[in-house]
Specification:
Length: about 400
Amino acid sequence: QTGKFTYDPGFLSTASCNSAITYIDGDKGELLYRGYPIEQLAVNCDFLETCHLLLYGELPNSDQKSEFVNRVTHHTMVNEQMHFFLRGFRRDAHPMAVMTGLVGALSAFYHDSTDINNPEHRDIAAIRLIAKMPTLVSMAYKYSVGQPFIYPKNDLSYAGNFMRMMFATPCEDFHVSPVIERALDRIFILHADHEQNASTSTVRLCGSSGTNPFAAIAAGVACLWGPAHGGANEAALNMLEDIQRRGGVEKIGEFITQVKDKNSGIKLMGFGHRVYKNYDPRAKLMRETCHEVLNELGLHNDPLFKLAMALEKIALEDDYFVARKLYPNVDFYSGIVQRAIGIPVSLFTAIFALARTVGWIAQLNEMIADPEYKIGRPRQLFSGAAPRQVKPIGER
Ligand code: SDX
């Protein structure tokens, strides 16, 4: 008996939990936040209304919205010491390395919101994190390009404030066009939550130890970075640019052949999903947003967008992808939109983290508020050596 036995690796990914926040029907390609279809939220609401919905379970009325927006707006600045913390990084550090550090560092500054078991602490931590993520992401960007940080302005919208902190300089202010502002706000909505994905499960598991909310969200940022998860939008755009360099649409067939070759290790980034075995509803909305933004910017002939649509068409008709129910996911078009509005590729996943922060917090708070919750402890199926005796080194 070696003590070894077979086990199903899938078992390790089937840990489940109860939640009332987001519902996904992978076969139908449906996504609902607190019962509202994503298609309706993306068109009829803005991101901060969606944050209110995810956090408190209801869309706000106009008074509730004003109060919520006011709270978030007045927490957009970060402690000045965070600027010095950031300056410890190399200028060429990946923004997700910087964000992992900055978000975790918030727990060193806001002691009135670190007790995860205190509902008031949790609520102020939620407001602070939602408010400060755009400031931190824009700081990471400004630091990487050697420009001074731009402070938030309280008379701007959430998306407008972010774009100004990204692209204004002391020499010249920046005003985002309403179409771009709305497109970015919609991108935030589409990325806000997605049930028990890898980074959300990470946040739940981390928070279940009783650590502070900032540390738990920092763990989610670290997990989202992976190319199989939130890093896929950066990888998808790099993939499209690579195909474009090699000859564009004419080279799609060659690329698809490589993807089908298991030994190539090449994936069609922005395609496939652990849950959706139909078209990711977010990808449809992202493609529409792409159209709107590219038309607004006079880029409707953008070669990468044309390449993406050609690649999608071919993949959706190819038996390999059809048999495996591989459809575009949220990451397939999001990179093209962000690139069109001037966001550097390296920042795509940081923006995903900015938007997903509200979902992580809502899921964490839901778990902590459940009196039955205990520290997470996934079970293992042991497949190592059977018990044995230590021999003196001369006999090993
Ligand atoms: C996100 O979980 C979430 O909700 C995540 C997310 C969120 O909002 O939080 O939606 C965000 O992470 C979206 C996914 C972004 N990742 C990518 O786009 C990277 C490329 N996609 C793959 O890495 C993959 O599709 C996964 C990781 C997303 C899912 O992997 P699975 O679970 O292995 O997919 P599957 O079981 O459906 O795969 C079935 C088959 C396998 O081949 P066989 O072994 O059956 O021959 O399809 C293959 C896979 O190898 N496959 C792909 C593929 N995705 C799966 N082949 C080529 N290209 C792909 N993209």
